[in-house]
Specification:
The complex is a heterodimer of chains A (251) and B (275). Chain A is mainly alpha-helical and 251 residues long. Chain A folds into 2 domains: 121 residues, no CATH class; 107 residues, Outer Surface Protein A, domain 3, CATH 3.90.930.50. Chain A is built from 10 helices and 5 strands; from the N terminus they run H-H-H-H-H-H-H-E-E-E-E-H-H-H-E. In chain B, helix 4 runs parallel beside helix 5. Chain B is globular, with a radius of gyration of 18 Å. The chains are: A mainly alpha (251), B alpha/beta (275). The interface between A and B is large, with 48 and 48 residues.
Amino acid sequence: MPSPVSTISQHQSALARYCRTGSYEPIPGVRHRHVIRYRELVYNVVEDILQSAYPLTYELLSSAEWNDLVDRFLSEHSCRSPQVWRMPKELYDFVKKEGTPLLSQYPFLLELLYFEWLEVELFMMEDKKASHTSKGDAASDALVLNPEHILQHFHYPLHRKTAAQISDEDKGDYFLVMFRHPGSGSVQFMDLSPALVYLVEQLAIAPVRVTELAKEVCDALNVPFQDDTLSDILTFINRCLDNKLILGFKA
Amino acid sequence: MVGIGFRKDFADQFLNSTTLHPDFIEVSPENWIGVGGYWKKMLYKALDKYPLFTHGLSLSLGSPDELDLPFLKKTKQFLKDTGARLFSEHLSYAKCDNAHLYDLLPMPFTEEAIRHVSQRIRQVQDVLGDRIAIEIVSYYTPVAPEMDEIEFVNGVLELADCRLLLDVNNVYVNSFNHHYDAKAFIDALPLDRIRYIHMAGHEQVEEDLILDTHGQPIANPVYDLFGHVMSKLNDEVPVLLERDFNIPELSELQQELDRLASIKAIKRNTYAIAG
């Protein structure tokens, strides 16, 4: 005979299971007509948060596809985060691990989910400080990269085209740096060439002067160092100083 | 003191005008722990102006699962960082079988449940180093009850030796949904444990069911019940207006705060005259 504690646990578990699956098995004392409200409340909270975190995916999928995805996620996945704003990351993890027929229909879906999650994560993540000064010379002083950034390689142009317009013909290599503007807190994107990815990676290690940076990039890519190269990189650096991907100069 | 739940939906307008001017604000730590950037700036801008009360959502005190101690420690750090005056949580569960549900489910009203949840409240109080306030939640169906709600609540308050967050709207909603006298319920509570009061709006969705939506203005019968509560209390208890959906003009929220303050003032004046 089960102990009272386990009986209570069983009732609690049965109610929680119903809220996640919508499949009701009678629980002593429960009014079936009203317990439905709990299923609605739980489903609506989860669906609402997912819709907020993944607006592009929501727009891409039909209502039936979206609802089926949410339904599967809620019933099959155990949400681990006590913080509801972090929960959407678990939908990406769930689709990556468990798969869905939608991935055949939309080969870029997993990347789209990740792209959308990264935007949420960057917007919300804890502050990262980097000591710097705004006074300096881009041509001669060591540059300080905004540490609130993510470098990402995608295979589809998720940031350039609406999801519904993306096709297999778009498949390629798309390098992107996503970063949080230190003033507004908004998340911004920049397309990068592989050379600029390497440049940003070097800046992320430590503040570097643009001349050293240019030489490092040329060495890595095995191309001769020329005045044009320095000029091109300086143009990129000045753009990054304007949009705050580069915060300023080493203090 | 009369406060307002600090919501992202109206944070910008709230912080950049004087239309809504509460005595304090309340947030749920879950929504702010580990958050930086824009929202951290907004929170600390609010904290420059207002004292903070906190109201947890995810500790799931009534859960059969293990208590999430790492998250509790993060909560403790948040309370310290923000100088929060009070931490409250719910007499319910929001996690089961290792899955968060992000809503408050009703506990079975049983002796075993009293012992279980009380032990966990004590555990939380030990970690936080302070007594917490527990909210009686609204519920739409009982679950395997072996006793009345009041017996369950009072059993927990005594065994856990915690404070009470009295959500007056919840008592009203529960009294309607489960056919009891709200004033008699309140009179049967250990009023000396009340440390904090919540007020909110609700919506009647069926002939015999009211939902605790926080999406409407406070209903008149709930104001009446609040007056009854205040007539029983000797101390100045902070009162919070919760509004999570259908956010109206801030001036309308201020009118609700003013009405709550005026009911409290009647109580204060009554005592002043009596004294």
